[in-house]
Amino acid sequence: MARSKTGDPMRQPVAGWLFVTPMIIILGLFLVVPIGMALWVSVSNWSGRGSPFGGNTEFIGLKNYSDLLTKQGLARQDFMTSLRNTFYYVLGVVPLQTVLALLLAVLVNQRWLKGRTFFRTAFYFPSVVSSVAISLVFLFLFAGSGAINGVLAWFGVHGPNWFADPRGLIHLLGDWVGLWNIDQPPSGLTGTKVMNLSLWEWVKGPSVAMTSIMLQVIWTTAGTFMLMFIAALQDLPTEVEEAAMVDGATARQRFWNVTVPHLRPTILLVVTLGIIGTWQVFDQMYVMTQGGPAKTTLTPAYLSYSAAFDAQKWGRGAAMAFLLFLLIFGLTQLQRWLLRDKDAAREKKLAREQRRAAKKEVPA
Description:
This protein is mainly α. About 25% of the residues are buried. The protein has 17 helices and two strands. A two-stranded antiparallel sheet has the order 1-2. Helices cover about 70% and strands about 0% of the residues.
């Protein structure tokens, strides 16, 4: 009887490549090639008509990038405004959605809670609903005569016209505590400019309009991250928590000293996904504000879309997209370094040093 060839180790790599080749072709056509084309558009003067590789398209180098980063003008000012807006957006959304998701996960993971399946479904439901539909609902809720202002009126508070109010929260807070007059800002802040924006504009904080969008996003995304935390909590060995209870640890001590260290990889994942998602925010701004009022909800993603599809400046829009990619990549690497397990990193470093020392000791 002839020996089967299926176990031949020489054929295994060939079979593996045959299985992954269709996906490699699909990724190449719909991911790698478009990225390469966008990179070419960012360094060319393509007008959006015809092929970007046609004879009417010329290579202009880094002009689109210099217009956004070094050249004085409206393009640089709008780009810096979008970065400022998104910075405050990320600073407000990522920590709050992470904490809220963790608290919800701990709550619905309790054994004594009745109807846990119902609450998990209810908290996760906003995450599966269309963001456009939720944005339209929030437009009605936060309107000048909407439900939110109606509830505030019960407590004697006159709510603002949320999506038409460009005032920044830090400006309002400083005016409230008497640090400055929002109508007559300090000349030292208004007279000093950094990257086309004055210091007064940099310390503005999220606008009232941006704050309402932040509340919507936190409510929408917390359910998805809650599921990630639930999966990690259910993976926590019960013996460890029972041992902490035997040692006399309180519920608070068990949470901070047992649960949170176990959730470190999940927290890293949630924060990473949160940073990526918030810096790429687009649909809420497109549906609810179109960057207004007074450009206080302008974001790099929406500005890139507007530059390309509205102003027909495709090279500038592509350049914004690549700058946004570099920014997100740098920030994710930074937060990975900040949230790393220092003990594990120290052990890896020591192991590398020992391997290097062992190689040096090996005689030639």
